[in-house]
Amino acid sequence: MKAIVQHEFGDADVLLYTDVEIPKLGENEVLIKAEYTSVNYADIKKRRGNKGKGNFPFTLGLDVAGVVEEAPSDSKYRKGDRVIAFPKAGSYAEYVIANEQLVFKIPDRLSFEKAATMPTVSILSYMLLHEIGQVSENDVIVIHSAAGGVGSTLVQLASLEGVKHIIGTVGDLEKENYVKQLGAHSVYTYETFACEVLQVTKEKGANVIFDSVAGDVTSKSLECLSLYGTLVQFGNSSGKAGSFKTSDVHSSCRNVKGFSLGTTRKYAPERLAPVAEKVIQLFAENKINLKIAEVFPLCKAADAHKLVESRQYEGKVLLKS
């Protein structure tokens, strides 16, 4: 089969399209013929070496949409089942292996292309909004990187819940209309959002802020977080760590919560199935949609990475196996 293999850290040109063996089934695993996979910013960071040491060679990719090719005789999955999954050894490949706990059936009415936009970003977004942020209708919330995959899903989920005031931030206001179409009431840049949030809330601040950027954005978020407010930190796409002092939280009764879908997949995979069922239904019923910025053939994975790194896109970038 064909796959994208990486033998060293570096720019997008280290992604090698080559022949590899089809992976063999292990215990409680299924083999999936991939139709589409998505490119997530975590792939960029891993390719560059920003996520620790690499056990070369390896294949990038967090999620996949495809068809079960092989499963154990006692499995709840059968050959031909349409699924989304989180493969155990990357998804930039024609065939992938995944643990049964990280495989979820999708209905016939949900296309593979549409399904491929959702596994990582929709499950993560749902858990962030409902379990970690515990957002309520009357909240004012801020969603950083609102035009990205997770951000645009969070905006739509919050809108579905009727959240009082949804504020999105973007690096470039050219994305303002796109984010507002998703359901945001206001859109600001990373440079101005703290002042704007305080102004629109009459100095009270936002109740919940979702931060996947970190760096200076974290400290600016604390400047406009309300009393008893929650800062949800789930990434650092800026490449810089965010920081805060204990005095930023104890006297104001505010709290900072961290969350990682990768950690949850590894240590608490049983938490994902109920959430996957809900978001699959939302996508199948067209209550949530993620714009597809562009679809690249698997052999053009390097070009897909270059587009994601440029940040000059809206929605999700996909690879077709």
Automatic annotation (TrEMBL):
Domain Enoyl reductase (ER) per the UniProt entry, residue ranges: 10-319
SUPFAM superfamilies associated with the record: GroES-like, NAD(P)-binding Rossmann-fold domains
InterPro entries recorded: ADH-like_C, ADH-like_N, ER, GroES-like_sf, NAD(P)-bd_dom_sf
Presence of keyword Zinc: no
GO MF annotations, alphabetized: mRNA 3'-UTR AU-rich region binding; NADPH binding; quinone reductase (NADPH) activity
Coiled-coil zones: none
Keyword Secreted appears in the UniProt entry: no
Record's keyword terms, sorted: NADP, Oxidoreductase
A Gene Ontology cellular-component term: cytosol
Protein name listed in UniProt: Quinone oxidoreductase
Organism: Sutcliffiella cohnii
Lineage, opening ranks: Bacteria, Bacillati, Bacillota, Bacilli, Bacillales
